[in-house]
Design goal:
Number of domains: 1
Low-confidence stretches: none
Radius of gyration: 12 Å
Number of strands: 4
CATH topology: Translation Initiation Factor IF3
Mean pLDDT: 93
Strand content: 25-35%
Structural class: alpha+beta
CATH class: Alpha Beta
Strand order of the largest sheet: 1-2-4-3
CATH architecture: 2-Layer Sandwich
Helix content: 25-40%
Distance between the termini: 27 Å
Order of helices and strands: EHEHEE
Shape: globular
CATH superfamily: YhbY-like
Length: 81
């Protein structure tokens, strides 16, 4: 499985970050995002980042948290019911 790697830093989730993320999904189905210490590494903060990303991307995406990494997957059909 091939992943594209991205990072969330002190700027958090900006519009530019979301546009770059959408561009990554044009060529890959999976993206792995590392949360840097400057972005806040509490479990609650990482869960908030995950929810914000999923809201901005849409219904065709799912996320999985492993430590300080967020793994996003793009599906062909909506995953929300």
């Amino acid at each position: 499985m091939v992943f594209t790697e991205m990072q969330i830093g002190k700027n958090g989730i900006s519009d530019n970050f979301i546009q770059t993320l959408k561009g990554s999904f044009q060529t890959h189905d999976n993206v792995r995002i590392s949360v840097l210490p400057s972005a806040g590494r509490s479990k609650e903060q990482i869960q908030k980042y995950t929810q914000d990303i999923l809201e901005k991307l849409g219904d065709n995406y799912t996320a999985k948290l492993i430590g300080f990494k967020i793994t996003l997957k793009k599906w062909r059909h909506s995953m929300k019911k």
